[in-house]
Amino acid sequence: MLPTFPGGMHVHDGKELTKDRAVKAATVPPLVIVPLSQHLGAPCEAIVKKKDAVKRGQPVGEAKGFVSSPVHSPVSGVVRDVVAAPHASGGKVQSVLIENDGKDDPFPGVDEETDPGGLSREQMIERVRAAGIVGLGGATFPAHVKLSPPKDKPIDTVIVNGAECEPLLTCDYRLMVESSETVVRGGDLVRRIVGAKSLILATEDNKADVAELLRKTIADLRIPDARVMVARTKYPQGGERQLIQALLGREVPTPRRRGLPMDVGVIVQNVGTCHAIYMAISRNVPLIERLVTVVGDAVAEPGNFRVRIGTPVRSLLETTGFRTDPQAILLGGPMMGAAVYTPEVPVTKGTSGILVLSSVIDAEPRDCIRCGSCVKVCPARLTPLDLSLADEAKRYDLAEAWHIDDCIECGCCSYICPARRPIVQQIRHAKAALRKARSAAKAG
Ligand code: SF4
Ligand code: SF4
What we know:
- The protein is of the alpha/beta class.
- Among the domains are: 111-283, Rossmann fold (3-Layer(aba) Sandwich), CATH 3.40.50.11540; 373-443, no CATH class.
- It is built from 13 helices and 17 strands.
- It has helices at 121-130, 143-146, 171-178, 180-194, 208-221, 240-248, 271-283, 313-320, 373-377, 384-392, 396-401, 412-416, 423-443; strands at residues 24-25, 31-35, 45-46, 53-54, 59-62, 71-72, 77-86, 92-100, 157-161, 198-204, 226-231, 266-270, 289-295, 303-308, 328-331, 338-339, 353-357.
- The strands form four sheets. The chain has a six-stranded mixed sheet with strand order 1-14-13-17-15-16, with helices on both faces. Strands 2-8-7-4 form a four-stranded antiparallel sheet, with no helix packed on it. It has a four-stranded parallel sheet with strand order 11-10-9-12, sandwiched between helices.
- β5 and β6 form a beta hairpin.
- The longest helix has 21 residues, at 423-443.
- The structure holds iron/sulfur cluster (SF4) (2 copies).
- Residues 377-380, 382, 384, 407-413, 423-424, 427 line the site of one iron/sulfur cluster.
């Protein structure tokens, strides 16, 4: 019996649409938009100005504070401006607009090979920080912070997360197929940095071929104390808490108790993050590109693309072409993705997928029939129906008392609800209202 976690559900994964399509390089656009906030934590500050010449990989935004992350120019060219530009979050975010000169000249030092064996733990963490690496599974938490657990939280296990449970997305799968060596080496570097004994490469049983490939890579590279673990395919298996519980049987304390994987001796890093960590430490490559799955019934050529950060979605979709007029564009997958209001928003470090749809079903929500399905599937063991009703009644105090902060916004409750209640959207709304109330209370 394959390991799994309580709750969650089986959804048609639709991965056959893109999983066998090899990664292609997307066209690098004439203008890139590099937001100064692409991560959890403090936004960075621009360190270039209008008309400055920049090289590929040159820092253009400096991190402000420990929980922050620098950003780099993905092209060589000239800074057109530093202005507020459309962003996937829904509003505008201060961004560096760079005109691409097409030369791709690297910033001095970028692409230079280094033997990681000669670097100390601190030097490796600094390389990861300076390269602007954040969690590429969607969380965008600065990687150097995760690699620096306090001394009283010893780490015994590193899990490289290749579950990719979100339906339709296959960029992590393609990365494992095409670059298994850098993924495994990156995971091994993470283990070395945090001083853990065990390294686990985790995936789901709908990717059995990749599990075999990872086993072979571990053997070929002679990586000690490393193994591949395969969990049962179930959504949201890729959630850190869910993966740790499934593979190790350890329960991470809830967000409301400020619990983190390090509290149970574990660090989880997405496969893309491990690849990026390897590239930063051993080749001095900053995070200026990522793999993105483009899929949906309005797309002519779905597939996986290597995309420079800052590429407008419109430009990427010109590469894939349309079968029909798109009615909605979501960044991310169908479960956790968010609709964007304009295709001018750029691909950022957290963009794992672009879903382009030819129609949108706008069903009218009905009254809750108390069927209990949402409670059954909730992996955070909440009562989503109560949270939904609390939001409707604007009783955010009740939502808080019913542990809304533990919700991981996986969307299982909305998906399963026969009354088509937009539960996860209501939860996000209530969380935002609570955040506002808390900061108002803090400000006095
Ligand atoms: S979105 Fe939140 S409340 Fe709904 S099933 Fe997921 S964790 Fe539970
Ligand atoms: S799934 Fe929908 S209808 Fe059923 S209890 Fe939850 S909110 Fe109510």
